[in-house]
């Protein structure tokens, strides 16, 4: 069963941002083709193509009531769009006598929909600002300077209660701001490269961030301490999202993959492949069964999470000291492991238990190997090789080697016959 429900290829340039509407009926995407597009979440049919920006559109957010979408562009403006008609209802920009905004990099609605926050770079180089806007009147309600160019804000999000705003920046830091005063209240330090994306857990107690350092971090939102690190991507993490139930984390990367994680344990659950270039944005549907992704390959993809096989792991208990080696039988039905006290355990993949034995020939088992037919097992210590019958556990042969310079056996295997 193909987990990719549909590929939407209407954009003619990179897709920088995607979001599901809170009512689950549509998906919005922002692109370097200067447009925002809306698609039916079920059929993938294009509902609206919003034109008006004169430069790349790099961020899109849905209002809590799903009636509007806000978009941020490299033309320095924020567009407010009617999702019913696709019409541009308001343009958010500073007064004519204010310093000109060059780029609006990220945009987010407050939980009550009454305000919009943006992270921007001014025409004057190395000046980064936050603005809070009234989306109905277009008025700028509050603003503050974040800092110089290293503080370039890549992502912004409101806390679920609307009291805080968190930003992710080029300098590798997360910052918490009072949403009324825009006073910085806390700094989160841990990433070693640009932080590209940040989201709150639904209860507001924790945060998730993704960085160019290839890491995903989970933070305590009160103490600003990192509580977990999720590692697995082979390249920059460009986007993170969390499901409405708070049980799943999704991450999109420049390694062309999406990964799913257990939000509580941090366990890697699945790797989703299909995009042919880096993934800029991921977002869950409200019910958490689907995931949307936007990529530099110019497509929006919708994934059925229930159709994705989940990775699983099994903890095998039996060794009491370090395990030095392991080998699967050729048919995959058995796994042999050897430890630092000369013990060998053969585990059965059909849940029929394990057979444990002690090697009198090896004080330390450094390598093990099954014969091609799975009938015999060879194991070596420093300079001794023992061969056992897998069925009877009887030692059938012992080979003693003389090695120069106190060497030991690092590898062994049976010939194919």
TrEMBL record:
What InterPro entries does the record tag this protein with? WD40/YVTN_repeat-like_dom_sf, WD40_PAC1, WD40_repeat_CS, WD40_repeat_dom_sf, WD40_rpt
Tell me the SUPFAM superfamilies matching this sequence: WD40 repeat-like
Query: Which chain positions lie within coiled-coil regions?
Result: none
User: Membrane-crossing residues?
Assistant: none
Q: What PROSITE patterns has UniProt attached to this entry?
A: WD_REPEATS_1 (PS00678), WD_REPEATS_2 (PS50082), WD_REPEATS_REGION (PS50294)
Does the record's keyword annotation contain Repeat? Answer: yes
The WD repeats are at 8-49, 50-91, 146-178, 188-229, 230-271, 272-306, 316-347
Give the UniProt keywords, A-Z.
Repeat, WD repeat
Q: Which GO terms describe its cellular component?
A: nucleus; transferase complex
| PANTHER family xrefs | WD REPEAT DOMAIN 5B, WD40 REPEAT PROTEIN
In Swiss-Prot or TrEMBL terms, this protein is called WD40 repeat-like protein
């Amino acid at each position: 069963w193909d987990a990719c429900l549909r590929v939407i290829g209407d954009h003619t340039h990179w897709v920088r941002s995607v979001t599901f509407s809170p009512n689950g009926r549509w998906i919005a995407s922002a692109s370097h083709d200067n447009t925002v597009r809306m698609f039916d979440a079920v059929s993938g049919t294009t509902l609206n193509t919003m034109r008006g920006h004169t430069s790349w559109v790099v961020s899109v957010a849905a209002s809590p009531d799903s009636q509007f979408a806000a978009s941020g562009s490299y033309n320095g403006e924020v567009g407010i769009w009617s999702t019913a008609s696709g019409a541009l209802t308001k343009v958010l920009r500073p007064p004519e006598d204010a310093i000109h905004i060059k780029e609006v990099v990220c945009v987010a609605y407050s939980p009550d929909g009454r305000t919009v926050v943006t992270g921007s770079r001014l025409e004057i180089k190395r000046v980064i600002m936050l603005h809070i806007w009234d989306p109905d009147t277009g008025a700028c309600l509050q603003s503050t300077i974040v800092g110089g160019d290293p503080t370039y804000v890549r992502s912004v999000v409101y806390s679920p209660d609307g009291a805080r705003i968190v930003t992710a920046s080029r300098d590798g830091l997360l910052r918490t701001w009072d949403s009324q005063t825009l006073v910085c209240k806390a700094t989160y330090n841990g990433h070693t490269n640009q932080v590209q994306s940040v989201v709150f857990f639904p209860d507001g107690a924790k945060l998730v961030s993704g960085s160019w350092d290839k890491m995903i971090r989970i933070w305590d939102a009160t103490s600003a301490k990192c509580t977990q690190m999720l590692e697995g991507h082979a390249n920059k993490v460009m986007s993170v999202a969390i499901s409405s139930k708070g049980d799943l984390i999704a991450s999109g990367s420049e390694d062309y993959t999406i990964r799913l994680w257990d939000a509580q344990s941090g366990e890697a659950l699945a790797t989703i492949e299909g995009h042919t270039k880096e993934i800029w944005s991921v977002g869950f549907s409200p019910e958490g069964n689907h995931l949307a992704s936007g990529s530099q390959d110019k497509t929006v993809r919708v994934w059925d999470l229930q159709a994705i096989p989940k990775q699983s792991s099994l903890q095998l208990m039996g060794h009491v000291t370090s395990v030095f080696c392991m080998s699967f039988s050729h048919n995959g039905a058995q796994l042999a492991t050897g430890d630092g006290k000369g013990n060998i355990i053969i585990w059965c993949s059909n849940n029929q238990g394990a057979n444990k034995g002690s090697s009198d020939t090896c004080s330390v088992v450094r390598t093990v190997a099954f014969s091609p037919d799975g009938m015999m097992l060879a194991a070596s210590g420093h300079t001794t090789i023992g061969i056992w019958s897998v069925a009877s556990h009887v030692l059938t042969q012992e080979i003693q080697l003389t090695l120069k310079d106190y060497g030991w056996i690092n590898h062994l295997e049976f010939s194919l016959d």
